Amino acid sequence: MKILGISGSPRRGGNTEILLDEALDAASKSGAQTEKVILSTYRYSPCLSCGACEKTGRCIQQDDMLGIYEKIALADGMIFASPMYFYTVSGWAKSAIDRSQAFWSRKYILKDPVFSVNKKAYFIGLGATKGERLFEGTNLVMKYFYDAIGYEAAGELLIKGIDKKGDILNYPKHLEAARLLGGKAAGR
Ligand SMILES: Cc1cc2nc3c(=O)[nH]c(=O)nc-3n(C[C@H](O)[C@H](O)[C@H](O)COP(=O)(O)O)c2cc1C
Question: What's the pTM value of the predicted model, to 2 decimals?
Answer without folding.
Answer: 0.98
